[in-house]
Write a structure and sequence with these properties.
7-stranded mixed sheet, single chain, 3-stranded mixed sheet, 431 residues, alpha/beta
Length: 431
């Protein structure tokens, strides 16, 4: 019984071992197929490619790093050269502005000009800090108008002159004004003749004049226009004077000169103008309170007010803000709707920057109201005060009264001929 059972056990054991071998072989075949799918180029080849790519990246990074270092060194060298050049240019600019400043000083009559292109400075102690008041003058450009440039070289004194525009419509007033200029011994005066009649008058009376080249856009206005029409032209015409490097004292023809105005100009601003104000408050500015009772506790609103500058008598230095002022006013007067040149002149000069509008950055000075006197001050105040009657104004502008010519003649009689009652026949207003 024992023999047959042992043989069956041995046979079963051999069968199990054979099955295990077959399973192992199958697993090996399956793993081989899987590796073939995952690494078609071989397992060691994949590692080799990975190492090669890594080395290539290292080489590229190293190369880029070298190039970046060289580029940085080049840029540093360029910056050093530019810094040196900039320092040299700053020094040249400072030297040139110093020379310009020295050239602009007027033999004891003008204040020292302040140049804006200075190196930055620290603020001083409390109460000592003052902002810049005066813009630098432009570089003269004689190519703008060579003919006018030659005339100005002969007429101007210290690069300054009085300029009046006139056509034959205002000839009687021009004659009185020119006569007063000669009496006051003012040499630097020029008439811009807008027609042949004024040119002939200037030739006959030894008055320096300039007649513009024909210009279809404005010649019709210049020759036939009234006071206000001609007044609007001056802003376009004066531009060339400033471009040529000359300071201009613009003067309407309804002005009597008693003294030389250049002895009383400050020259510390882009624009100096006489005022239409009749007292210190209106001429120089004041705090005016607006009352709106419906606002209750906040019914009082404070406002700053000043009476307008007179566009018939103002002094312009040849600066960019002054030229910009002329451009702005000329442009607005050339476009509809029609506007009064004095209103536009003041709006451009005083309105601040606000949304949709960039204000003019020009420095301003109001002239002494007793020296540069309007006719309201003269006829309402000065002629009635014994002390004020002794004052000697620089000019009197008959701007408040339509009967200009007789009042101009009366002013000449009063201040030049000593006729104390010359002003009495006239009413305070237009009567």
């Amino acid at each position: 019984m024992a023999g047959p059972i042992g043989r069956r056990s041995t046979s079963a054991s051999q069968s199990v071992c054979g099955s295990r071998i077959i399973v192992a072989i199958l697993i090996g075949v399956l793993l081989g197929c899987l590796m073939a799918l995952l690494y078609p180029n071989g397992l060691f080849s994949a590692h080799s490619n990975s190492d090669s790519n890594f080395q290539n990246r290292r080489l590229q990074i190293g190369s880029a790093s070298c190039e970046s270092t060289e580029r940085v060194n080049t840029l540093k060298s360029d910056i050093a050269e530019l810094t040196t050049t900039n320092d040299e240019l700053k020094k040249q600019l400072k030297d040139l502005t110093d020379k310009l400043q020295a050239a602009e000083r007027k033999s004891g009559q003008s204040v020292q000009q302040v140049i804006v292109t200075r190196d930055p400075q620290k603020a001083g102690p409390f109460g000592t800090v003052k902002g810049l008041r005066t813009n630098p003058t432009v570089i003269p450009d004689e190519t703008v108008n060579p003919r006018l440039s030659k005339i100005l070289e002969k007429v101007a004194v210290n690069k300054e002159l009085i300029v009046s525009l006139a056509n034959s419509n205002v000839k009687p007033m021009l004659e009185v004004s020119v006569s007063s200029i000669k009496k006051a011994k003012i040499p630097n005066y020029l008439v811009v003749a807008l027609d042949d009649g004024i040119a002939d008058y200037c030739k006959e009376n030894d008055v320096a004049y300039y007649m513009r080249d024909p210009d279809e856009d404005i010649d019709s206005v210049a020759k036939t226009g009234g006071n206000h029409a001609v007044s609007g032209l001056k802003f376009r015409i004066l531009r060339e004077f400033l471009q040529l490097g000359y300071s201009v004292l613009l003067s309407d023809v309804d002005i009597v000169y008693v003294q030389n105005p250049f002895d009383h100009i400050y020259r510390d601003s882009d624009v100096e103008s006489m005022s239409d104000g009749h007292d210190n408050m209106t001429a120089y500015g004041y705090n005016d309170v607006f009352d709106e009772p419906t606002m209750g506790w906040a019914r009082y609103a404070h406002t700053m007010r000043i009476w307008v500058y007179n566009s018939g008598f103002f002094y312009l230095r040849p600066t960019f803000p002054a030229i910009e002022l002329l451009d702005r006013v000329s442009d607005r007067l050339a476009r509809p709707p029609p506007a009064w040149d004095q209103a536009v002149f003041n709006e451009e000069l005083f309105f601040p920057s606000h949304p949709g509008y960039m204000g003019l950055h020009a420095s301003k000075r109001t002239m002494d109201r007793y020296l540069f006197m309007n006719s309201k001050v003269l006829f309402k105040e000065v002629r009635k005060d014994d002390n004020l009657k002794k004052l000697k104004p620089v000019i009197v502008h008959i701007n408040y009264h339509p009967d200009k010519l007789p009042r101009m003649k009366a002013v000449v009689e009063f201040y030049f001929n000593g006729k104390q009652d010359a002003l009495d026949p006239f009413p305070d207003g237009s009567g």
